[in-house]
Each structure stands twice: as structure tokens, then as C-alpha cells.
Amino acid sequence: MEEELKCPVCGSLFREPIILPCSHNVCLPCARTIAVQTPDGEQHLSPPLLLSRGGAAAAPPPDQDTAAGAACGGGASANAAGGLGGGAAGGGDHADKLSLYSETDSGYGSYTPSLKSPNGVRVLPMVPAPPGSSAAAARGAACSSLSSSSSSITCPQCHRSASLDHRGLRGFQRNRLLEAIVQRYQQGRGTAPGASAAPAVAVCQLCDRTPPEPAAALCEQCDVLYCAACQLKCHPSRGPFAKHRLVQPPPPPAPPEAAAAPPSVAATPSTGSGCKSPGGAGASAARKFPTCPEHDMENYSMYCVSCRSPVCYLCLEEGRHGKHEVKPLGATWKQHKAQLSQALNGVSDKAKEAKEFLVQLKNILQQIQENGLDYEACLVAQCDALVEALTRQKAKLLTKVTKEREHKLKMVWDQINHCTLKLRQSTGLMEYCLEVMKENDPSGFLQISDALIKRVQLSQEQWVKGALEPKVSAEFDLTLDSEPLLQAIHQLDFIQMKLPPVPLLQLEKCCTRNNSVTLAWRTPPFTHSPVDGYILELDDGDGGQFREVYVGKETLCTIDGLHFNSTYNARVKAFSSAGLGPYSKTVVLQTSDVAWFTFDPNSGHRDIILSNDNQTATCSSYDDRVVLGTAAFSKGAHYWELHVDRYDNHPDPAFGVARASVAKDMMLGKDDRAWAMYVDNHRSWFMHCNSHTNRTEGGVCKGATVGVLLDLNKHTLTFFINGQQQGPTAFSHVDGVFMPALSLNRNVQVTLHTGLEVPTNLGRPKLSGN
């Protein structure tokens, strides 16, 4: 739980913690160091912050000094009790100042860039106290600058920035609940509050290392501690620094007992980056329940749901919470405690599972050790029984077993360490939450309850599915065959005796598109059996027998040319030198009910011109040319339409179906591989093998629509013009595989429309002329 009680800036236990808008906590003294002024607010800095070395600052008015002291944490009395006193070695006190270096003194410009701490938080450099001014006055000037100019503070954990209002750091609420838990924790450990805040020795204030190097020198003018490396790098003895005086660093701070000194005696200030102890006689006094900061002596009585903060009754009557949704403080306190308790139950269950999982992992460790020793003993016994020629090969085989064992051990140890870390974090969070739930301060609890609930929920979510499963198996898939002849000794190696595992179908990647299906699979995890390839089998779409459709090493396969509106069953198995493995589970795939296709640019005549994503066709020749569709039909009923976009000089376009080998340089239907209807502006004919039949009145023009109905269930082909059947059924006894086809010349342009349901309300057929 100690990690929960440490400040993310200084790394020590919290001192006077405040709650940032992001629900994270930070020490109040640390908040002063990471609060920065934006460049736009530089010109508004008050005169006491722009001091040259040797210059005297004008003392602020008494009332201003008092207010500034209160804003910075208690004025002179807090200074004496908490170790915030001034002095040459008071680096902690100077961290609160936002003074700027003088150009005539040290060469710094009017704006001093912020330093960076190891966790990325911007920290203001430490500056000397202005001569002739008290520590409280300097601190008051700093806090006055924070409240009057454009200032902001960045959270050291989530890096969210928040602007400070006119109240400065006083605008953030004190986390009294966390402060009380820290005091109880220190008492339980038998240490005085503040004992861990001060470092044993003075450390460098500019080091990038963690922890910083011990300080080797202190510049009296800059009031900055340097290690030997940082002194050469940041404070060379030349230029503006030539006249600066370097002295030995100050002695270590006073022992923790000094924190309990009377208020009239100032404790020795710390020069480290740790937070100052709030200490004093008040530290051991009984903690009082907080009152409303905006209305003195008024106790909290309600909880504002909109602002997520406790309020008093005057805040509801006079303040900004009058129109907000509020709830009774006690009821909300109990509700949030119940939510936190419920979330803790989930984390507790996961922690229990994690402990059981650690026991399982340790058992696997023992099994791996035992199995590894067994395999080594068996290997040694077999190799010793062979002739001297086996000696050279024995070392190689032992190496393989050892590497396999070490790999398994490493995987399990890594998993143990990872799980132990998560378990320790969850346990610490649980202990901290249980301590929080012991509190009887509703307002203090509600200040942090939302953030704790979210953290507990996130802690529960980190135990994702599969996190509590071993990554390796304790079994060794190694078998030595001692039967080979002496001539094969130099090729002696472990052989695989196990059959390949069952492939796992990846259903999220299996899909159908039009009349094609795509299947994907993979080998199971933690499987070391070699796989030479896979065999994919598919039935006929009508519940028939399976047949092989793919054999190879790929784990993704697409099968085209299937029947539309059909249900297929598929399965896969692996094979290796040891034999064929078992089949996977059977997956059921449904092809599309209707056909979506376009004109095929690869199968059309070279004079055919396609556009509109291959859905519109015309021709560059006065002779008839053929183009086919991209789909092929052998089963079911299919309907598509062709819209006449252009019709000039009374040409004779032909519509129908054909085999893939149809002639492309003549009118559709003139050979025995096409069945078509050709039509002009007055009449139409059916044609197959250059035989013209069933002349029917009624032709096409610009804007007309020609429909083609291929019913392979009834083995018929029928044509329609503008929704009316053109003549009788054109062809019967149609059987086989057919592709949509069209022939036209340069005087015609048509657009293909597919994906249509088979119509049921088409008009009656027109009577043929002969």
C-alpha cells in the first residue's frame, strides 16, 4: 500500500496532499514547484519577482503578506512548524518562489525555462531569496503571482493541465482523508511523520539521474546545489559565472524530532526535493471534521452531484450550487462505499484466481523439471547403448532437450513474475481501499471515492481472459527412435511421432461473397507438432459427400464458382510425415440468394468498351461483338436486366446466355454455344445455331429495358421487354453451365442491372408472328 501513499513528484509520503481536477493527488509544496506561468503572463509578473542580485525588494503591505502566507500554507507559523524557514541552505523554501534571474548577474534572460524531473513534470529552478525580505514575504509574492497572473499546473501522472484561478493553489481541495491514512501508516510503521521526507545528504538539484548524485558544491549567488558533473556542465568558472562563489554544500537536515519542536523554534530547512513535513503540535492533535471553505464554521450537509463535491446549506441558498442536483451527504457516502465494496469483491475474486494460478504455474515448473530430467536420462541411456559413432550426435540431442527445457522454464518464470507484479499491485490497492473505507469522514471519502472506484474497476479489467492460462505445456514432444541402422547415425535426430493437431477454424475471417466462400484456420497454440500442409474439403451444396478443394500450406483459401442460394459444409485437416490429423469442426456457409456480377473485361472482344465499373458496355466497331458476364450459373433461377442507354440507326443487339468458349466476333446465337434473342426497333427473334425462330412484334428503343430469366430448375430461358414477356419461352431443355452474354455494335450502349429477385408479376407473353 505504500506506493499508494507516495507523492508522484518527490517520491516521498504525501505532505498536505491536494486533489487536482483529474482526481490525482500531489503534495502542496510540490504543487508550488510544478505550477508554472505561461509566457503570456510574464509581462504581468509583480515587481518583487524581478530582482537583480543585490537589489532590495519592496515589502508588501501587511494585509497582502498575510493573505499570501495563508495561500501558501500557513504563513510564519507553518514556516516554523513545518521546516519552511529561510536561509542560505533553504532550497525547499526557494522552490516556492517564481523569481527570475537577472541578466546582469548570471547571464539568464528574463524568462527562465523550467527544468524537468525524471517523471516529466516541469519544475521551477531554485532561486535565492531576495535580500532584505522574509521567507513569508517571498512566499506570499510567489503565491500572489500564481493567483494574479496566468498560471497552470500539470498533473505528474496523467499530464493534464489545469489553470489556476484567482485563489491559486487554494482553489484545490485538501485531501484530508489521504493525509489521515498517511499519518496512521507512519504510526503503524513506528516512524514519525516527515521522517522520510528529507534525504540523508544534500543532492544535486539539476541531475537527470534517479536518484540524483550527491551535491559537491553550492553557488551562493544562484543558491543551487551542483554535483561535480552538473557543475562543469551548467556552472562553468568563466563568463558570467566567473565571479560566483562556490562553497561546500550544507550539512544534512535535522533529525525527525525537530519536526515536533515548539512553533517558536524553526526547524532546519531541507535542501532536497522532498516535501516538507506539516509537523508541529497540530500533527498529533485529533483531526477535526472539515468545514465549508466558502462559509466559515458551516459543516457539510449535502453532496452536489454536478460538481461531485460536498457542500453546506449556505452553498445551496446563496452559492453557485443552488440549481445543481444535490443528495444527502450520508446517503451518497453509503452509496459510494457500496460501489467501492462491490468493485473490491471482483478484484478479490481475481486475486484469489491469481494465487491459484501461481500454484498451478509452480506445479508446471516442477513437472517441467521432472519431465526434462526423465527425457535426459532416457536419452543418455539410449546413446550409451550405441557405438562410438553416436557420441558426437548425443551432445547435439542433449542440447536440444536442454534448450527446450530452458525455453519452457523461462516462459513460465516470465509469466510468474508478470502475474506476481499484477497481484502485488491489486493487493496494495485493496489494502489502501480498505483503509479508506474505515474512514468515517463522508466528505473526505467522497473526494476520492469516484477515482478509487474507477481504479478498482480498471484493476479488475487488467485480468483479461487468457491472462490466467499457462503459455507453455509441461510436456516435451521429443521421442528418440533407437532402431535406425548404423549408416544413419549421423542423421540421428528427434522424430515426430504425434499426429498433427486439429486445425482451429477462424470463424471471424470466414465469409461468403456472391457465389464464392472464403475460409481461414490456424494451428492450436502451444503445439509443437510439425505440420506439412492442410486439406480443405467441401460438399456439393446439397448435403452430398465431401470432396477435396484445396491441398497446401496456406491457412486462407477462397473457392469460386459455387452455386447461388446454396448451403455448403466445409472442414479442414492437417497432415505431416506422421500421417493425417483429425478433421476440424464443420462450418456451414450460405452463398448469396441473388447474383451480383458485371461485364467481364477479360472475356469480351477487344472492340468492346466498358465503363461505369464494367456495368455499361458499347462497341467501337460496326460489326457485332460479344461480351460475357463475370458470373456462371449451373443451378437455381436467376434474373437480370439490361437498360438501353443509346440506340441509333436501328441496330440488332442480342441478349442471352452462352458458354465460356462462345465466338466473340459475331452476333450472339450464330454458333451452338449461345442462346439469344436479337431485336430491332419493331420485332424480335430467338436464335441458336444460326436458326431464327418465333418472330414477335415489339422492339426496343432508347430507354427500353430487356430482362433475361434463366431458370435452371425448370431448364428454361425466357426474355422480357419493358416488363412484358417477349414471345413464348425461348428455349427449353437448357442444361449445363451458362454465363450472361450480350452482342452489340457501336450504335448501341446498354447498362447491366444485377442482384434482382426473380420477378413474379411480369406481364403475359406476346404472341409470335410465325
Q: CATH superfamily name of the domain at 608-756?
A: SPRY domain
- Structural class per helix/strand content? alpha+beta
| CATH class categorisation of the domain at 608-756 | Mainly Beta
Distance, first to last CA: 99 Å
Strand content: 15-25%
Walk me through what this model shows:
The structure is a single chain. Among the domains are: 1-37 and 151-189, Zinc/RING finger domain, C3HC4 (zinc finger) (Herpes Virus-1, 2-Layer Sandwich), CATH 3.30.40; 300-331, no CATH class; 337-442; 504-590, Sandwich (Immunoglobulin-like); 608-756, Sandwich (Jelly Rolls). Helix content is 26%, strand content 21%. The radius of gyration is 43 Å and the shape is extended.
Summarize this structure briefly.
It is found in: Cytoplasm, Cytoskeleton. With 770 residues, this protein is α+β, with helices and mostly antiparallel strands.
